[in-house]
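Appendix B. Raw example, untouched.
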Amino acid sequence: FSGSVEKDIVLFQDIMTGSRVDKNSVVNVVVSDGLPPEGVILMPNFINKNIKEAKIWASQYNVMMNVKTEEVPNIITNTIIKQYPECDTDITNAKSINVTVAVNIVNLE
């Protein structure tokens, strides 16, 4: 299932686009089933979003969120730079999710 990719669109393939393969080779693909059924919670894509947005979402779905910080230059403080699980992972039974937010330290010398 995917909250961001329409039904019947390829999400992943195991051979890179443009690669040459032998005739009758098997290429494995993962295809979106579209939106999940009611009651299934998929992890949103929080990358490059403000932590406030993720906290609101976590509160709405009663999901505990573990937050780490990482010093990163040129990224606005409180912007999510990493998340686990990945976007569109079924987290219906997950107890918590993890995000890492940027902290941009400014040297005032």
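End of appendix B.
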